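input
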Amino acid sequence: MTSDLISDYFPNVSSIQKDQFNQLGELYRYWNAQINIISRKDIDMLYLHHILHSLAIAKVISFLPGETVLDVGTGGGLPGIPLAILFPETTFHLVDSIGKKIKVVREITTSLSLKNTTATHNRADQVDEHFDFVVSRAVTQLKDFYPWVSGKFNRHSKNLLKNGVLYLKGGDLTEEIAGSGLKNVHCFPVNDYFTEEFFNQKFILYFSAQ
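output
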């Protein structure tokens, strides 16, 4: 799997963005050998299982210039780094409670010359700023996740979607959504956008700030 997969689904990416996506493969291989951020068995599927999966969020929303996005539990920079490449005029703040993972995020974003990202070693509930959107990838149960970020949203929405959360998760989510206490959770199947079998039973959950 190569970065051509990204161009297939996002044909309007610029030559600079293509180059940045190309570099991700080498960068993640290098850093994964130093610090295990992606399963070693999975690194050959980086573009499909991790980068393209992260970009599924971009099939539900186009972040606007000047909007701010918090990536909670970013790990090695997913979904934040691929989204930051795709939306260079949107500002992304990537946080994780594990310092060595944030070191990798900083090294990768520096290598890519990404100017629209910051990365901090922090828990989400300790972040003081406010954001338009929060993104994350299967960090924990929804009922536990939302309290970390409630109260961290800008009041006024500029996008077609109201300010809120875009959460990547897989499996049968019926009980989890019902038990979350959240209202109006919209569930977008990723295989509506990407045809690969890997995306069966994977979803983008969206709900506005509550």
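quick obs: The first strand starts at residue 68 and ends at 72.
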